[in-house]
Please model this.
Amino acid sequence: MSPTDHPQGDDVPTTVKAYAATSATEPLTPFEVERRDVGPKDVRIDIKFAGICHSDIHTARSEWGPATYPVVVGHEIAGTVAEVGSEVTKFSVGDRVGVGCMVDSCGECKNCLAGDEQFCVEGNVGTYNSVGKDGEPTHGGYSQAIVVTEGFVCSIPEGIDLDVAAPLLCAGITTYSPLKQWGAGPGKKVAVIGLGGLGHMAVKLAHAMGAEVTVLSQSLKKQEDGLRLGADHYYATSDPDTFQALRGQFDLIVNTVSAMLDFDAYLSLLDVRGAMVNVGLPEEPLSLRMFSVVVGNKSFAGSNIGGIAQTQEMLDFCAEHGIGSEVEVIAADKVNEAYERVLASDVRYRFVIDIATL
Ligand code: NAP
Ligand code: ZN
Model:
């Protein structure tokens, strides 16, 4: 049965095709996942595209702690509404929609009420490798369909194609949120470390917000792309002269790197009262000289995705500014190859799975 011919009102869960990780060391393989029947507040989405975030790899390989296998990862989901529950008010069948890293939360705690569902005091329900309110494990976007409560579904504005929209649901919001929080805009010098999935979105968004943007990449290989995407300057961090030339320059540094860095060296690039905000999540703990932040009253901060309302705000901002992700669309059976290329920093700039190939 295809995900679309599921009869409305039938309460039998529907099985859809997916790709799953079955252990930390095996390649992802074809899998079938059961989706719950559409409840009164639920939206059933036919997934068209799913982005490959580095977090999918961290999770599939149990790099952040043991994952629960099998797990279908993917939290950059774009598709169309196939069915809505009787109490759904925001969406109709056929609407273009997206789902990011969360699919539920308590909805009542102070953080949920403030629009910070990612910090729900009871813990948000992750799109994958989590447990839903029905007690079942959650499975993400490398699959044909998903059922999500409408409060965790965003509208994808007309004008953004679904393939380039998918990565906005994680890479987009994860970079938009700290850029907003730390005031990226005209007159601000913003550096972005790492020109990967998150990094290239940070460049596009910071540029659209009016900031002066510098890319700090390992090499100059992607310089032409970086400048085309909106960077004003581009430096190789493998060149020690870079750290001399840029000393004390930046108001804000957004670190998108998935590996450990010499944080003292990067903090020396901040102006007085500047902030380095980390979104990259390497598995190991870090070491830091306190002098690197104390001298200059600098901030060393982190940022975790963004709430649902802010995700919608980001999507609307992207539509207004003609921003999508730069994507390489791949067939589902190329996902393991794509993982290796992401790990080798050989991604320009987000792999997106064409779900029709599942
Ligand atoms: P990605 O596409 O692999 O990009 C990471 C980039 O970092 C690479 O393209 C590379 O850029 C640079 N890099 C990689 N290894 C490096 C090394 N050893 N030294 C210096 N630079 C290195 O990954 P992504 O999907 O953007 O995700 C980045 C990180 O953010 C991951 O850890 C992911 O889990 C995390 N993340 C966090 C959140 C959050 O809410 N905070 C949300 C999503 C993802 P260059 O080639 O330009 O140097
Ligand atoms: Zn992600």
Notes: The pocket of zinc ion (ligand 2) is lined by residues 53, 55, 75, 170 (CB under 6 Å).
